[in-house]
């Protein structure tokens, strides 16, 4: 996938909202989270939203790094391993209780890691190939959906 | 084609005869030759039979194939398409070029895993399919770690040809093919176009056949690949066509001579073909214990990273400029594609120049081979140009080189020229006719000027449209035209334009998914 900055941001938003949203909906009841299910959903969806907002900012940094590459590309493997820095930042903000609307320190690490890693993996697996099946124009239009 | 042009499959010489009244009926008349816009009556007067079909594709190579594939998937029946070609299969010419330039079916192309001319979605990519077929995770690991821990993964040539063959039958492509040589395309008074085909001798009662269509697609491939003048001069003077060759000619005899007796060979050029030829020479050396000495001349000897500024630097070294694919990867969908799409005139030509230039992928295997050659002294690379070639003693070639270290004389048993001049578009007869009579013009790089939709600018014959894709469109709003993926991008733009004209269905999420599912099951459409 060789999208433009605009395309990457659009794809990220669409993927996290649709695929990430569905996945979070399915996974949350199975996660070892404290409190009733409603609170658990509030927690997981706040984490998803935080990932989304921070992710848009990350894209600008990745775009800058790409400029140093002659190919101006972002190899597939990088899209996968950026789970480490992005996950670490969200966890750091949770630990510092810096995520609005959420008691960050109360989120168990295991549940967070499971949610973050699996959501990332599902989104990545769809974005690197199957996404092109329904959205054949998306591929050649720099990842733009609109 | 002139005789300084390398012969390719499907480019048989044109046996042109002057229109002779009383000769074979149905030939071009002076009236037709001289007129830019033709009426139906003019063809009747010339006795040329006219066949009606909505869409004609001229060329029949991979450019025609991926365009027809796209249109078939968009619901166009085979009866609405005619592909006019001299080729036996769409990949015949490409396979010839890859084979002689040392990429037989078992070797890997320089093409991305997801550039699949048999599959417009590029999913599953060649890498995934190879992993599945070989029951191995290796290709997947390779894809995941490219280009950092591994070279870019690329498919085997045979994989690409076999998969194209499957798609060729799945979409009923053979039903669209009409054999013959296209002579010209002219605009029709009243709309659309006439494409004049010269059928093979004896295949039709008339000398020419005309196809009257609303839409025409031109994908004739390289206008021609020319021998460099020094090479051509030596061959013409000495009639020795076996020792001084272009790598795009069959040149197996040189490898055989090196097997029979040790010798020195001069390789010229810094592109992928030079890399492949060097690999063949070194593989033979290793496999058969040969003593081949290799001299390698670069016109521009690259010593390190190069480029106009920090945001535009390409890696290089040991003579080579390194790049994974024919173009920086983002021309096929990323930043560079978006940038070029907005540029006009000189600005566009300048950007093409920045990412152009001869280059080759930095493959670990090649690096190791050449390093060993340098260390052991049997491979020597240098900046140099050939000043003179003449026959040497005992069937050798005496080469005078002009290098940055001064003149140098060498005796070699062969010169393998891995450079090539791409001929001007005018050298292709159909393209020349379009420039002279079809209203077509040139782009900032001197090739055929196409719109963003790949409509050939200036050739419109309402309500008809003429499109052009492939190498002849290089220099347009989209740079990677002469690649697998580039041809698919062009096909998508053409199909989108044709959809707005009502010729085919759009490829929205539902149709796209259901068509992909048919592809996945190998279901004929």
Can you describe what's shown?
The model of chain A has no long low-confidence stretch (mean pLDDT 94). Chain A has one domain. The longest helix of chain A has 31 residues. By secondary structure, chain A is mainly α. Chain A starts with a helix and ends in a 6-residue tail after the last helix. In chain B, the strands form 5 sheets. Chain B has a 7-stranded mixed beta sheet with strand order 12-20-13-14-17-18-19. In chain B, helix 3 packs across helix 15, helix 5 packs antiparallel against helix 6 and helix 10 packs across helix 13. Chain B has 525 residues and is an alpha/beta fold. Chain B contains 16 helices and 22 strands. Chain B has 3 domains: 216 residues, FAD/NAD(P)-binding domain; 66 residues, no CATH class; 142 residues, FAD/NAD(P)-binding domain, CATH 3.50.50.60. At the A-B interface, helix 3 and helix 5 of A face helix 6, helix 11, helix 15 and helix 16 of B.
Report Rg of chain A. Answer: 16 Å
- Name the CATH homologous superfamily of the largest domain in chain B: FAD/NAD(P)-binding domain
Report the principal-axis shape of chain A: globular
Rg estimate of chain B, integer Å: 24 Å
The rough form of chain B would be described as globular
Main sheet properties of chain B: 7 strands, mixed
The greatest interface between two protein chains, and residues involved on each side, is: A-B, 29 and 43 residues
Helical residue percent band of chain B: 25-40%
Q: What's the main sheet of chain A like? A: none
Amino-to-carboxy terminus distance of chain A = 17 Å
CATH architecture of the largest domain in chain B: 3-Layer(bba) Sandwich
Low-confidence segments of chain A: none
What value does the average pLDDT of chain B take? 94
Q: Number of folding domains of chain B?
A: 3
How much of the polypeptide of chain B forms β-strand, as a percent range? 15-25%
